[in-house]
Amino acid sequence: MSSREECVSIDLEGRSYNIVVGAGSLHAATTFEGLPSAHAALIVSNTTIAPLYAATLRSAIKSRFPVVHEVLLPDGEAYKNWETLQLIFDALLSNACDRKTVLFALGGGVVGDMTGFAAASYMRGVPFVQVPTTLLAQVDSSVGGKTAINHPQGKNMIGAFYQPRLVVCDLATLDSLPLRELSAGLAEVIKYGPIADVDFLDWLESSIEDLLARDRTALAHAVRRSCEIKAWVVSQDEKETGLRAILNFGHTFGHAIEAGMGYGVWLHGEGVAAGMVLAAGLSRRLGLVDAAFVERLTALIARAGLPTKGPVLDAADNAGRYLELMRIDKKSEGGEIRFVLIDGPGKAVVRAAPDALVREVIDACCG
Ligand code: NAD
Ligand code: GLY
């Protein structure tokens, strides 16, 4: 590890692993030193990212894996489905990959979630490594072992908990990320403040322009602190029996937006951004936070270049359509929607809310 790199550990007993955060980590063979040895590796990437970074990754891992295969998926949330997952299995089988083969997910959350799910199920489980190349994937999706594909009726509905062996966040890869995608990643960074760390929220308020300008020092702090908070939560509740649900702040509304608009129309982070404003508004209506906190959060989200209002999903009964979509949520119990709400700055709770209040906040914050 070079002196500019930092390492966050995620403590899961026999399945613990490191998250390396640095600039240029992808170039160094030493980054991958602790991985199990195997005859073959499979790099899973997409048609946008592979031309930028696959050769660098291949070169860094070639001394550990005599054979490095590659499979390229179509790019986009709309392809996070069974047909695309099958391309990974096709590549594994047509190259006669055995159960020691190590999969490398090189890309954003879509590639990471699908590669993880393929690794969880190929021959009942093979090792995999996350090499996240979006800010969103570096601060959230590559860490914690949630893997999934979408179903037309619901986001991430088919998947598994399956931990990677290593996460490599090379900040240099963020240089090529489109600005809209950088902003989308900031939604997941901002999320950690209201749910767990008010000091981090303060820091974000003073650093948001630096982050948008891709200042390496600011990005390093944002990625490291986000990973620390996520690692702390996941270490306590890997399979989301309780605490881990707080990481879904903004996601209940956000997933409804993504599914309701059609996957890929709104970016995941954009849905989460508007969803956080809606969830904060609902928290205020339930008397958990004051209006000043909602305004503070909304202002930060706007400064990050993110939407602060949800879209209209149904002109005839918009709130009804949101409610219908939100009932198909992994946190729902017996058809009752459970929201992640802010119970005072820096603290989250998960609970149900009366439909009338949910309708009120949707009517006020969408359109
Ligand atoms: P994404 O994977 O679609 O990547 C965004 C876009 O940026 C894509 O077009 C991609 O090809 C491109 N791209 C990626 N890296 C690039 C780079 N360095 N330079 C240029 N272009 C680059 O989207 P995302 O925001 O990374 O991930 C969203 C997905 O993550 C959603 O499916 C969401 O459900 C999932 N997610 C999962 C978890 C989890 O815990 N598993 C958490 C949050 C989000
Ligand atoms: N992104 C939410 C979680 O990992 O639990």
Outline:
Helix content is 44%, strand content 17%.
Task: Explain how this protein is built.
There is one protein chain. With about 375 residues, this protein is α/β, with parallel strands linked by helices. About 45% of the residues lie in helices and about 15% in strands. The protein has helices spanning about 50-60, 80-95, 110-120, 135-140, 180-195, 200-210, 215-235, 250-260, 270-285, 290-305, 320-325, 355-365, and strands spanning about 5-10, 15-20, 40-45, 65-75, 100-105, 130, 145-150, 155-160, 165-170, 340, 350. The protein has a 7-stranded mixed beta sheet, sandwiched between helices. A two-stranded antiparallel sheet has the order 7-8. The protein has a two-stranded antiparallel ribbon with strand order 10-11. Strand 7 and strand 8 form a beta hairpin. Helix 5 (about 180-195) runs antiparallel to helix 6. The longest helix is centred in the middle third of the chain and has 21 residues, at about 215-235. The protein is globular, with a radius of gyration of 20 Å. Glycine (GLY) binds near residues 140, 144, 247 and 248.
